[in-house]
């Protein structure tokens, strides 16, 4: 029987609670298939690990992860360690070190979930945000001079490379060609940001010419935020820079009914390195340890992992099991229900087994 090796990094806070359910669903999916098994290896890299070892992961952490078919990650960051240290010690080095340049984040209003947007039925919101994941506003380039003096200078450079910009926009447009309405929306801000964003627009327009079957439009990020609320039914694929995509996908999560249901995949489309799958939300310190976190975002990220691993039917089955669970009213508190994290995981596994 084939074995697929998956590295699990539960991380911090609710990360541990939701990855446990994701792993159970993946195991159930493999049982259902019968043709392969998952071998999970769990790594304790987290803020707790940092407090003990002075680093978020061992120095050779990336080399260790490189041998796995995929990485299943919970959340990184906790009030015990400054965020820029924890995130730049674990999550961001993996995304960047493995050149996971596509951050794919679906936005879907699922059955049994009420959107805060009035009169939106399940299925009426369904699009995907493609976020650039290795450069842009998260460049790690800059510095601080004359710290603490009246002359203090702080610089953070935004870096857009031609290769980085072209490849993310091209990926998004190729994806949009497979959507029924073939719509691609580019998030820009070329009115106020006068170097990087006009360059982004230029690349977007050039790529649009190479994909003539698409209906392509650039929308300023401020207006786009409003359109996510007022006309979310109009999007198929939205492509955005690193920071714009980050902000847009928490907004996307909100219109899906809860940050707890939003999924994400950090992909190396060329498959030179393992890709990483994680929910959009963070470690949720305010509810951690209570067993009430919504595991749906993490389970739907497991679904994206199955798709990436070449198991599209199993991925579809997991998606249907999650939708059936929510439609049956098994929901955590963030969705107005009273189910625990574990109960939602149980229900998804049961629905998956029923659906066989
Ligand atoms: P957060 O996403 O952790 O929490 C925001 C709000 O959403 C909180 O009220 C929380 O209770 C709620 N929430 C989040 N996940 C939920 C779930 N599964 N079920 C129910 N409710 C949920 O964002 P934050 O508070 O800004 O960040 C907390 C920490 O997580 C910070 O250290 C931050 O840097 C980190 N973070 C990590 C990731 C990641 O690892 N991918 C993503 C975002 C934030
Ligand atoms: C996310 C998170 C991360 C990001 C943070 C924790 C660095 O918000 O995955 O959306 O901004 O990419
Ligand atoms: Mn985010």
Distance between the amino and carboxyl termini: 20 Å
Q: Which kinds of small molecule does this entry bind, naming each only once?
A: nicotinamide-adenine-dinucleotide, 3-isopropylmalic acid, manganese (II) ion
Mean pLDDT: 97
The name of the CATH superfamily of the domain at 1-103 and 296-356 reads Isopropylmalate Dehydrogenase
> What is the succession of H and E elements?
EHEHHEHHEEEEHEHEHEHEEHHH
Largest sheet: 10 strands, mixed
User: Based on CA inertia axes, which overall geometry fits?
Assistant: globular
Low-confidence stretches: none
Radius of gyration: 20 Å
Give the strand tally: 12
Going by helix content, strand content and strand pairing, the class is alpha/beta
Number of helices: 12
CATH class term of the domain at 1-103 and 296-356: Alpha Beta
Strand order of the largest sheet: 2-1-3-12-11-4-5-10-8-9
Keywords:
356 residues; alpha/beta; Isopropylmalate Dehydrogenase; 10-stranded mixed β-sheet; two-stranded antiparallel ribbon; globular; binds nicotinamide-adenine-dinucleotide; binds 3-isopropylmalic acid; binds manganese (II) ion
